Every structure is written in structure tokens, then in C-alpha cells.
């Protein structure tokens, strides 16, 4: 769930540290997840609408597209420092420092305090009881490999991200070798074929059915090298709402693959949001989105279960207060320090040898000329 490292996609645009269009995508993704779980919790009041649709699921897929795109930019920056195995290891170490600290804290808190965060339904939180090995699997984010339930409902997507990270450096190197998105579209089609095989026969890791959801982010990265922004920004939110509605109405995995591809191909085509106020607001939501994603179960539980005796107005006030305060605290006291520590660790581990290699390479031609 990456939100720190973002770059503007687009052939003629200057490279920017923050891309409000991507912030909008990520903000919409986390909002969809939170709203979906609120609808599930208050289910009886929403009996005319089926909360079991793909609203929250679609939000996670939006995350997948966003994550793979911004991590292509992260790899591009790392590639200026490291090559070969150092690029791969440096990337994976930084990802571990980014993802694991908060997930380990969440799983540990649930285990220590016996919090019922395995799932929720109408006015009910359901605990997920796992063995010690299951708890270790949750800590390592390998639930899908060990066939273990997640002790925190939203935690199910993080093993898929961690496993997809293994492939992203190779996809980045492929992007550097090809001239257009054509080969990547073929890779996406091949991934879809493997996903269909998995759906029909099984016996493959469940990651394969989500690879076509990650690949559009890689496609957006490559397409952004030559694409021109031809559509006004206001159409970008409309497109995302239409895609989300499509996924809710068509709850099929192949629809998810196509929807993600549409988003990936569209990202470089929309002009950048110009409103300073909206840019700042979207940036803040995107910045704290990982804490919102893993922490919103606690916020719902605290506000509407622990404080159930209070008037409903005060319960909602408590929810909004915690959904803001908790992610902010988690980011500044845990996430950001660990991100910085990961960067320092990678630099200490590989930076000296990388600098020595660049220095040696720079001196060799001069020595030859002498």
C-alpha cells in the first residue's frame, strides 16, 4: 500500500514529486473500502442495496493498479543508484520496511488484546481464531500460501502485494528494454490466460488471478513516456466512478481484469488537477491511506461498539475523530520513521559499493586515455 513515492506520468509533463491524479485514485480506493465496511456494519439499514457487491473489493483493485505504478517510479529512482541484484534487494528491503511494521503492529495488537477484527457484518465484529502457526503466517503476510485466515479483515490483500513485489523489478527492466506498451499488453493477456486456467482448474497460487490487476500500473508507467494528456481532469473521477459501478454490477474476475486495464491505460491521458485546495486534501488522504486501510476496523469498532451507549451523533463524531487521528499518529510515529530507516539501511548496505563501482567506472576511461 504505497503512498509516499509518486511521480507524474505523461510525456510532456515535467517530473513532479506529487501527482494529484494518482492521489485521487488512492484516496478513492481507501474511501471505497471504508464505506463498504460501514455499509456492511449498518447492513439492515441498507436493505435496498446489496452491500455484498464489489465496492470494497474494487477499492483494493484500485490500490493494486496505483501501487504497481508508483513502485515503477520508485524502481526508476533506485536504478540511478543500484543495478543488478542490488536493485532487486534494495527494492525488497525498502518494501519490507514500508509494509511490515504497521501490519505487524496491527496483528500483534489483535492477538494481545483479543480484538474481534477477523470480519464484520450487521452490527457485529467477528474474531478469527488462528493457531500459533496461523498467527506467524499473519505476521509474515503469507496467509494465502499457508491457507490461513487473516486476523484482520483487510489484511488479505497484503500477501498479494508482497508477492507481486518480487516480479516488479523484472517488469521494470522489461519496460526499459521495450519501446511501446505492446509487449506489456501481451504479458497482461498471458496473465489473463493463466488466471482463467486457475479459475477453471485451480492448483495455482491465488496470486495469478490478481497479476492482471497489478500489470496495468506497469502499463501506465510505460505508456506515460509517450502519451499526451488530452482529457480534462473532471472526467477522471467520472471514469473511476463508472469503473467502480461496473465492478459492483458485474461481480466477475474477468471484469476486474478489464476494469484495471482501463484504469491503467487511462492514467496518462488525463490532465493534472489544478485546484490547490483539492490537491492538498487528496495528498493528505493518500499519505495516510495505509493507516486508514489497516486501522478503520478499529475506528468502526471503537465508535459503534465500545461507545454504543452514547448518542449516535457522538458515535459518528468519535468515528471521524479516530479515522483521522489514528492514521496520522501511525504514520508519523511508525510508518515514516521505518521508511527512513529502510532507506538508510539500503544505503548503508549497498550505497558504498555502488558509489565505488560508479567511481571505478568513471576513472577507467581516463586511465586508458593516459
Task: Name its key features.
single chain, 370 residues, mainly alpha, disordered N terminus, disordered C terminus
Beta-strand residue fraction = under 5%
Instruction: Tell me the total number of β-strands.
Output: 2
Low-confidence spans: pLDDT under 50, at least 5 residues? 3-17, 46-52, 359-370
* Mean pLDDT score: 89
Measured as a percent range, the helix fraction is 55-70%
Shape: globular
SS content category: mainly alpha
Amino-to-carboxy terminus distance: 51 Å
Order of helices and strands: HHHEEHHHHHHHHHHH
Number of helical elements: 14
Strand order of the largest sheet: 1-2
Count of domains: 1
How large is the radius of gyration? 21 Å
Major sheet size, sense and barrel closure: 2 strands, antiparallel
Structure, explained:
Helix content is 70%, strand content 2%. Mean pLDDT is 89; it is low at 3-17, 46-52 and 359-370. It has a two-stranded antiparallel ribbon with strand order 1-2. The chain has one domain. The protein has helices spanning 20-41, 55-78, 84-113, 132-140, 143-146, 157-165, 168-177, 182-201, 211-223, 235-249, 253-266, 276-287, 289-306, 312-369, and strands at residues 119-121, 124-126. It has 14 helices and two strands. It is globular, with a radius of gyration of 21 Å. Helix 1 packs parallel to helix 13, helix 3 runs antiparallel to helix 14 (312-369) and helix 9 packs parallel to helix 11. The chain has 370 residues and is an all-alpha fold.
Amino acid at each position: 500500500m504505497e503512498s509516499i513515492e509518486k511521480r507524474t506520468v505523461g510525456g510532456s509533463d515535467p517530473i513532479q514529486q506529487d501527482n494529484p491524479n494518482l492521489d485521487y485514485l488512492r484516496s478513492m480506493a481507501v474511501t471505497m473500502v471504508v464505506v463498504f465496511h460501514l455499509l456492511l456494519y449498518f447492513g439492515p439499514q441498507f436493505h435496498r442495496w446489496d452491500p455484498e457487491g464489489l465496492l470494497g473489493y474494487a477499492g483494493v483493485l484500485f490500490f493494486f493498479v496505483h501501487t504497481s505504478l508508483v513502485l515503477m517510479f520508485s524502481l526508476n529512482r533506485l536504478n540511478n543508484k543500484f543495478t543488478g541484484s542490488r536493485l532487486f534487494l534494495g527494492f525488497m528491503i525498502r518494501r519490507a520496511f514500508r509494509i511490515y511494521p504497521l501490519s505487524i503492529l496491527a496483528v500483534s495488537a489483535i492477538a494481545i488484546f483479543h480484538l474481534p477484527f477477523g470480519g464484520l457484518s450487521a452490527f457485529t465484529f467477528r474474531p478469527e481464531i488462528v493457531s500459533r502457526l496461523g498467527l506467524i503466517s499473519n505476521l509474515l503476510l503469507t496467509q494465502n500460501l499457508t491457507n490461513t485466515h487473516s486476523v484482520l479483515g483487510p489484511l488479505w490483500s497484503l500477501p498479494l502485494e508482497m508477492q507481486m513485489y518480487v516480479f516488479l523489478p523484472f517488469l521494470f527492466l522489461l519496460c526499459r528494454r521495450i519501446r511501446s506498451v505492446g509487449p506489456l499488453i501481451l504479458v497482461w493477456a498471458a496473465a489473463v490466460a493463466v488466471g482463467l486456467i486457475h479459475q477453471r482448474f485451480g492448483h495455482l497460487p491465488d496470486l495469478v488471478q490478481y497479476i492482471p490487476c497489478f500489470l496495468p500500473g506497469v502499463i501506465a508507467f510505460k505508456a506515460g513516456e509517450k502519451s499526451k494528456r488530452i482529457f480534462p481532469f473532471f472526467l477522471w473521477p467520472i471514469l473511476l466512478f463508472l469503473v467502480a459501478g461496473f465492478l459492483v454490477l458485474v461481480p466477475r474476475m474477468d471484469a476486474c481484469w478489464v476494469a484495471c486495464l482501463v484504469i491503467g491505460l487511462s492514467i496518462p491521458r488525463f490532465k493534472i488537477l489544478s485546484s490547490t485546495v483539492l490537491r492538498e486534501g487528496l495528498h493528505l488522504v493518500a499519505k495516510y491511506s495505509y493507516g486508514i486501510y489497516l486501522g478503520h476496523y478499529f475506528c468502526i469498532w471503537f465508535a459503534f461498539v465500545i461507545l454504543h451507549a452514547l448518542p449516535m451523533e457522538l458515535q459518528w463524531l468519535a468515528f471521524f475523530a479516530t479515522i483521522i487521528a489514528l492514521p496520522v499518529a501511525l504514520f508519523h510515529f511508525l510508518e515514516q520513521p521505518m521508511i527512513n530507516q529502510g532507506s538508510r539501511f539500503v544505503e548503508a548496505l549497498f550505497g558504498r559499493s555502488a558509489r565505488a563501482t560508479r567511481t571505478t567506472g568513471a576513472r577507467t576511461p581516463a586511465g586508458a586515455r593516459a
